[in-house]
Automatic annotation (TrEMBL):
This is Amino acid permease. Residues 1-25 are annotated as: Disordered. The chain crosses the membrane at residues 37-58, 64-81, 118-140, 146-167, 179-198, 218-238, 259-281, 301-326, 360-379, 385-409, 429-446, 458-478. Residues 1-13 have a biased composition (Low complexity). The lineage of its organism: Bacteria, Bacillati, Actinomycetota, Actinomycetes, Bifidobacteriales. Residues 36-487 form the Amino acid permease/ SLC12A domain. It comes from Bifidobacterium polysaccharolyticum. It holds the Pfam family AA_permease. Keywords: Amino-acid transport, Membrane, Transmembrane, Transmembrane helix, Transport. InterPro entries: AA-permease/SLC12A_dom (IPR004841), Amino_acid_permease_CS (IPR004840), APC_YAT (IPR050524). PANTHER family: AMINO ACID PERMEASE, GENERAL AMINO-ACID PERMEASE GAP1. It is found in: Membrane. It is a multi-pass membrane protein.
Length: 501
C-alpha cells in the first residue's frame, strides 16, 4: 500500500482512473439505470432505524423533540447530498468520496477515509446478517441462526458477483417494498388521526399530553439527534454508484433532488403519525429498540387499525430492509476497496475486474471480512460488541469528508477562474450547506458519549471514539510514510471526468 506520493501523482492517478472506468477496460461497467440510482438513494434513506428505533426518539424527547431532530438531521443530509451530487456528476468514479478526499484535500485523507469506510461496512454486514437470522427465527424458532446468516451472506455475494445491474435490480425491488409499506402506513395513520376510516378520530391530543411536545429539554433533544443521524446513514452510497451509472449527469442529480421530498414524506410524516397515535409515555416505543418486532411503532399502528398479522407483516418488511442493507453494504465496500486499489492505496489485485465489470477480489475480501466478524460473535460476544461499537461513528466521519472535499473543491474551482456554469449540477446554498454539515457532524460525534468526556473515562472514550482515532492514525501514518501535503487550491486538479479522459 505504500507509495511515494505527490499531489501531481495523485491527480494523475485520479484522472487515469476516471478514463479507464469510462472505457470499461479492466474496470467496472456503467450499467446502472436512472431508476436503479433513484431507488438506491431511496433505499439508503429508509433503513431499520425508521421501522424499529424511531419510536425511541419520541419516547426520549417527546413528539416535538423527535420531529425536530429528524427535520434538522434531514436538512443537513439534504445539503450534504447536494454537495456529493456536485462532486459525483463532475467526476463520477468508484470510490467516490475517498477519491474526492484524496484529490481535493490530501492523498492521506483519501487513504484514511477509504479504509475506515470499508471496515465499517464489513462490520455492519456482520451485524445485519445476525439480525436477519433473528428475524427469520421469528417464524422458525427451532432452527440454528448461523445457518440463516450464512445463507443471507451467500445470496448477497451471488447477487453482487453477477453483474452490477443484478445488484441494481435487486435494490430496486427491495426498496419498492419498503416504500409501499410506508405509504400504506401513512394512509392508514392519517385516516386514524382524522377519523376518516376509523372512529373516533385520534386527533393531535398526544402532542400536548403531559410534558409534550418537548420532553427532557435540550439534552434529550441532543441525544435523539444521534439516533436520527444513524437513521440516515447509507444515503452517501448514491455517490459510489456514480462510477457505474449509465448517465451520472442525469441519474445522480435526479436521485439527490428527490432526497428532500423523501425525507419529508418517509421520515417526518412517519414520525408525525407515530407521535400522534402513540403517547410518548408508552413503554412500547422503547421496546422496538431491543429488536422486538411486536413493539415496532409500525406494528403497533397496524394492530390498532385491525391488522391481526401486523407483527408478521412488519417482520417481513424489516427483513427486506436488512437484506437491502447487506446488499448495499457489499456493493459499497467492494467498490470502495476497488477505488482504493485503483489509486494504489490497496493491493493491486483488488483493482481487477471480471469480464462483467465486477471487482471480484474486492467483493470476496469484503465478504470474508464480514464472515470473520460474524464468526467472532459466535466465539466471543465481548470482542464482537467492541467492534460494532467502535465503528459506530464512521458514517459521520465520511460525511465530514464529503463536506470538506466539496468546500475546498468549489473554492479551488472559482480561484482557478472557472465558471459555475461548467458544472453539470450545483449544490444548494454553498458555502452554508457543507459548513452546516461539518458543524452538525462534529457536534454529533462529540456528543456521542458526553458522560465519558466529562469524567475522563478513557476506556469508554477509546471504544466510543475508536473510529475517530483510527482515521487519525491512518491519516498521520500515511502522511508520515509518504510525505504528502494538503493540496493547495491553486494546484488542485479540478478537471472533471470529461476533461480527464
Amino acid at each position: 500500500m505504500t507509495r511515494n506520493t505527490s499531489n501531481a501523482a495523485s491527480n494523475t492517478n485520479q484522472s487515469d482512473r476516471a478514463g479507464q472506468e469510462h472505457h470499461g477496460y479492466g474496470s467496472v461497467k456503467r450499467n446502472l439505470k436512472t431508476r436503479h440510482i433513484s431507488m438506491i438513494a431511496l433505499g439508503g434513506c429508509i433503513g431499520t432505524g425508521l421501522f424499529m428505533t424511531s419510536g425511541s426518539t419520541i419516547s426520549t424527547a417527546g413528539p416535538g423533540g423527535g420531529l425536530l431532530a429528524y427535520i434538522a438531521m434531514g436538512v443537513m443530509v439534504y445539503f450534504l447530498m447536494t454537495s456529493l451530487g456536485e462532486l459525483a456528476t463532475h467526476l463520477p468514479v468508484s470510490g467516490s468520496f475517498a477519491a474526492y478526499s484524496a484529490r481535493y484535500v490530501d492523498p492521506a485523507l483519501g487513504f484514511a477515509m477509504g479504509w475506515d469506510y470499508w471496515l465499517n461496512w464489513t462490520i455492519s454486514g456482520a451485524v445485519d446478517i445476525s439480525t436477519a437470522a433473528l428475524l427469520i427465527q421469528y417464524w422458525l424458532p427451532n432452527t440454528p441462526g448461523w445457518i440463516w446468516s450464512l445463507l443471507v451472506l451467500v445470496i448477497v455475494f451471488l447477487i453482487n458477483a453477477l453483474t452490477v445491474s443484478a445488484f441494481g435490480e435487486t435494490e430496486f425491488w427491495l426498496s419498492l417494498i419498503k416504500v409501499a409499506t410506508i405509504i400504506v402506513f401513512l394512509v392508514i395513520g392519517m385516516a386514524m388521526i382524522c377519523g376518516i376510516m376509523f372512529q373516533p378520530p385520534v386527533g393531535l391530543k398526544n402532542f400536548t399530553y403531559r410534558d409534550a411536545p418537548f420532553v427532557g429539554g435540550f439534552p434529550a433533544i441532543m441525544s435523539v439527534f444521534l439516533i436520527a443521524g444513524y437513521s440516515f446513514q447509507g444515503t452517501e452510497v448514491v455517490g459510489v454508484t456514480a462510477g457505474e451509472s449509465e448517465n451520472p449527469g442525469k441519474a445522480v442529480p435526479k436521485a439527490i433532488n428527490d432526497v428532500f421530498w423523501r425525507i419529508l414524506l418517509f421520515y417526518v410524516l412517519s414520525i408525525f403519525v407515530i407521535a400522534a397515535l402513540i403517547p410518548y409515555t408508552s413503554p412500547n416505543l422503547l421496546g422496538a429498540s431491543d429488536g422486538n418486532i411486536a413493539m415496532s411503532p409500525f406494528t403497533l399502528v397496524f394492530q390498532r387499525a385491525g391488522l391481526a398479522s401486523a407483527a408478521s407483516v412488519m417482520n417481513a418488511v424489516v427483513l427486506t430492509s436488512i437484506l437491502s442493507a447487506v446488499n448495499t453494504g457489499a456493493y459499497a465496500s467492494s467498490r470502495m476497496l476497488y477505488g482504493l486499489a485503483k489509486d494504489h492505496y490497496a493491493p493491486a489485485i483488488f483493482a481487477r475486474t471480471t469480464k462483467r465489470g465486477i471487482p471480484l477480489a474486492a467483493l470476496v475480501a469484503t465478504v470474508c471480512m464480514s464472515l470473520a466478524t460474524f464468526a467472532s460473535s459466535i466465539f466471543g460476544q465481548s470482542f464482537y460488541m467492541w467492534l460494532v461499537t467502535a465503528t459506530g461513528l464512521t458514517g459521520f466521519i465520511a460525511w465530514i469528508g464529503i463536506a470538506l472535499s466539496h468546500f475546498r473543491f468549489r473554492r479551488a474551482f472559482k480561484l482557478q477562474g472557472h465558471d459555475l456554469s461548467e458544472l453539470k449540477y450545483h449544490s444548494k446554498l454553498y458555502p452554508f450547506g457543507p459548513v452546516l454539515a461539518m458543524v452538525l457532524c462534529v457536534i454529533v460525534i462529540a456528543g456521542q458519549d458526553i458522560p465519558s468526556l466529562l469524567s475522563l473515562n478513557w476506556s469508554h472514550m477509546a471504544m466510543t471514539y475508536f473510529s475517530v482515532v483510527l482515521v487519525l492514525v491512518l491519516y498521520l501514518g500515511f502522511k508520515f510514510v509518504n510525505h504528502t501535503k494538503i493540496v493547495r487550491l491553486k494546484d488542485m486538479d479540478v478537471s472533471g471526468a470529461e476533461s480527464a479522459r
